[in-house]
Design a protein that fits this description.
By secondary structure, the chain is mainly α. It has helices spanning 20-47, 64-76, 88-96, 100-120, 124-143, 153-164, 174-179; strands at residues 51-54, 57-60. It has one domain (19-184). Strand 1 and strand 2 form a beta hairpin. Helix 1 (20-47) crosses helix 6 and helix 2 crosses helix 4.
């Protein structure tokens, strides 16, 4: 016997293909995971600790000076000439790298702030949009090396979903905040 989620749209069953509760919890798990990823990257930049060892898992995160070096290499040296994206080389060299003492902290606190908001489930779609813009800038940097569609999709694809679909109602502060304030039940919550 087929379960209710396999029924055709023309059947008399009025049940949705996926439980709204299950979908909400799944989005909350995705939101929290992305928050942890961004927050961990911010912590690495804040403390300078790049290596992670959790039991069998070993990995590394990018610290501030490495972020600067990666940005400089991708824009100026990759492929012998650097980026061919119009105006990107000028923006990166004349604004970002020239003022790296400020931008390194802007990057650090952006990752920490977006990560914390996503973990807490507060202003989730707004936080996800800022995170998405942050990640799409990196995709633009990588675009000149023909890697952009394959570089970091695990970071920007979930952020697209989280920017479009409310995910702070389950296991987040958006739910309790908006429960008594119907006027706020719109984007960026």
């Amino acid at each position: 016997m087929a379960s209710s989620y396999l029924t055709s749209p023309t059947s008399e069953s009025s049940q949705p293909p996926v439980s709204p509760t299950a979908l909400g919890r799944g989005l909350a798990a995705l939101r929290i995971f992305m928050g942890v990823v961004l927050f961990a990257n911010g912590i690495a930049k804040l403390t300078g600790v790049r290596n992670i060892e959790l039991g069998w898992y070993r990995g590394f995160l990018i610290v501030r000076n490495e972020a600067r070096n990666i940005l400089s290499f991708e824009v100026n040296e990759r492929g012998g000439t650097g980026t061919r994206v119009p105006f990107l080389k000028e923006i990166v060299n004349d604004i970002i790298l020239a003022n790296w003492d400020t931008f390194q902290w802007l990057v650090t606190f952006t990752e920490l702030g977006i990560g914390a908001l996503l973990i807490l489930g507060l202003v989730t779609r707004g936080a996800a949009l800022v995170g998405l813009l942050f990640q799409l800038f990196l995709a633009l940097v990588y675009m000149s090396s023909n890697r952009w569609m394959f570089e970091q999709p695990h970071e920007y694809v979930p952020l697209i979903i989280l920017a479009l679909v409310p995910s702070g109602y389950y296991w987040g502060l958006d739910g309790p905040l908006l429960r008594n304030r119907p006027s706020l039940r719109r984007w960026p919550f």
